[in-house]
Amino acid sequence: MKVWLPLDSAAVALGADEIAEAIQSLAAQRGVDLTLVRNGSRGMVWLEPLAEVETPQGRMAFGPMTLDDVPALFGDLAAHPKALGRTEDLPWLKAQTRLTFARVGLTDPLSLQDYTAHGGLEGLKRALGMTPAEVVAEVTDSGLRGRGGAGFPTGIKWKTVSEAKADRKYIVCNADEGDSATFADRMLMEGDPLTLIEGMAIAGLACGATKGFVYIRSEYPVAIRIMQEAVAASHRAGILGASVLGHGPAFDIEVRVGAGAYVCGEETSLLNSLEGKRGIVRAKPPLPALEGFLGKPTVVNNVISLASVPVIMAKGSSYYKGFGLGRSRGTIPLQIAGNVRYGGLYEIAFGLTLGQIVNDIGGGTASGRPVKAVQVGGPLGAYFPASLFDTPFGYEEFAGKDGLIGHAGLTIFDDSTDMLEMARFAMEFCAIESCGKCTPCRIGAVRGVETVGRIARGDSAAIPLLTDLCNTMKSGSLCALGGFTPYPVMSALTHFPDDFARAKEAAE
User: Fold this and answer.
1) Distance CA 397, CA 328 (A)
2) How far apart are CA 244 and CA 208, in angstroms?
3) What is the rounded distance in angstroms from the CA atom of residue 148 to the CA atom of residue 175?
4) Looking at the DSSP assignment, which residues form a beta bridge with residue 217?
5) Is the pLDDT at 505 greater than 60, yes or no?
6) Is 253 helix (H, G, I), strand (E, B) or coil?
7) What's the pLDDT at 502?
8) Nearest CA to 324 among 301, 355, 342, 347?
9) What pTM value is reported for the model?
10) What is the pLDDT, as a whole number, of residue 506?
11) Contacts of 239 (CB under 8 A, 6+ apart)
């Protein structure tokens, strides 16, 4: 009997480890020959813990599992109270376009045999037969853009580092992932770490780098452990080390653990932290691509950006570019959270409307009340009202509505939410997380909290002041922490003016 049960942090938080112990204990009691594989999560968080049993008809899904549901796994599976049918046939999973997350949940995260059996290393092997310039061109032609926030074209960054003259170059993977409602990086590292390692090795070949770092915040112990074990396994298999797969130049990877400062998600703060310095923003220029880690040319890419490279190299840039719309090519892992019926990770090609994502995929609110707003892009993303639900999910399309995709985290709110309080939260968040280097962010956020408080007390004269403050922060901050804080504040003020129309008489 072969059973698959996720080791993913979300599944574990919902009781997966206890379920695993119960399955093993009961199998031992009944003399059942059991193989229990701890896989990554399929992304359907509302169904976790999701157990899968291997059958001649394929893997059958059962969830959300409780301890009381375990004994029935050893009986008639068709009669199991949590039986969902074949995993691959589940509508929420079947409708996805899984390129980056193709193996997550399907394989043992640390099995090289599983990895290669499902297409792993094909991209790296192809890259080894190409010149660095050809690899860079392939990534550029795919249209891949940074999946961590700004959406900067990955190929341009790689080309800059590749052509830079230096005795050493580095590949740095930004796995800090501090945004609320974002968990794609963690899920990928826990569920398919070898994809990230392969992507980093390809980046090393393309850019002439011999050393890579994965910077993970300490809040993700499972991801840290899995990545460390995956790096060690890659060494033993000859994927990393003195020669990539025995044919290419040297490339090595080191996992580094950060303390969890939000600002270290910004690339220059991350580099300072990686060097053992205080995590504060560096003024640009110079760009990290020219003077990054230890002053050397450095590629800094998000987990999902690097993990998307293997499929591009394996299947070609035209294949990947065939998905999406406009300048937003390929797929994007949506992380759906908040007050939502079906929360989790959902990978699709760019182009679905925001309304389709919220209502058709997410199933609307968990409370059953109408959706009031969706915050897209983490805690510093703009709030979109239902009137903008026809906006296609793409970088330029969201920018045209004064929003941003960021890391593609979506937090859903129902009509009981006070948007003035959400604007206050944005300013509070920035004030707490600011590194303190630049005045617009350090002081502006504190004054922002005060100004929103004045509005809450009925001082409507403070609204123009808040608008002016937001413009100052947006234009004058050194990095996106202060520069993006105006997005949630101004979107809340613009789209939900009634929440800011507090009568002074009533307040008094």
Assistant:
1) 9
2) 12
3) 9
4) 258
5) no
6) strand
7) 67
8) 347
9) 0.95
10) 46
11) 121, 124, 197, 198, 201, 245
Residue with tokens 């780098």: 209
Cα(11)–Cα(359) distance, integer angstroms = 24
Q: What's the chain's length in residues? A: 508
Angle at 295 between CA 291 and CA 297, to 5 degrees: 45
Q: What is the pLDDT of residues 280-302, one digit of tens each?
A: 999 989 999 999 999 999 999 99
What CA–CA distance (Å, rounded) separates 292 from 160? Answer: 12
List the domains of the chain with CATH numbers. 2-94 (3.40.30.10), 112-321 (3.40.50.11540), 324-414 (3.10.20.600), 419-507 (1.20.1440.230)
Angle between helices 132-142 and 193-207 (to 10 degrees): 120
418-475 residue pLDDT tens: 999 999 999 999 999 999 999 999 999 999 999 999 999 999 899 999 999 999 999 9
Q: What's the rounded Cα separation, in Å, for the pair 195 and 216?
A: 16
Nearest to 300 by CA among 407, 200, 172: 172
Helix (H), strand (E), coil (C) string for 343-372 = CEEEEEECCCEHHHHHHHHCCCCCCCCCEE
Enter the tokens of residue 223: 């991801």
d(CA 105, CA 50): 10
| pLDDT, tens digit (0-9, with 9 covering 90-100), for 197-229 | 999 999 999 999 999 999 999 999 999 999 999
d(CA 259, CA 435): 14
Helix (H, G, I), strand (E, B) or coil at 493: helix
Q: State both tokens at 306.
A: 């690097």
Q: Is 81 exposed, middle or buried (0-12, 13-18, 19+ CB in 10 A)?
A: exposed
Cis-peptide into 370, omega within 30 deg: no
> Do residues 73 and 62 lie in contact, with contact meaning Cβ atoms separated by under 8 Å?
yes
Residues 340 and 353: their CA atoms lie apart, in Å, by 17
Residue burial 237-262, b: 16+ Cβ < 10 Å; e: rest: eebbbeebbeebeebbbebbebeebb
Taking the alpha carbons at both ends of the chain, their separation in whole angstroms is 69
Residue 150, pLDDT > 80, answer no
Give me the amino acid identity at 74: F
| 108 to 13, 111, 196, 452, 496: CA distances (angstroms) | 20, 5, 15, 49, 47
Instruction: Write the CB contacts of 172 (distance below 8 Å, at least 6 apart in sequence).
Output: 212, 213, 215, 267, 270, 271, 274, 292, 293, 298, 299, 300, 301
**Parallel, antiparallel or unpaired: strands 2-4 and 35-37:** parallel
User: Which residues, listed in sequence order, are joined to residue 173 by a DSSP beta bridge?
Assistant: 214, 301
- Residue whose C-alpha is closest to residue 138's, from 332, 307, 313: 313
Euclidean distance between CA atoms 26 and 17, whole angstroms:
14
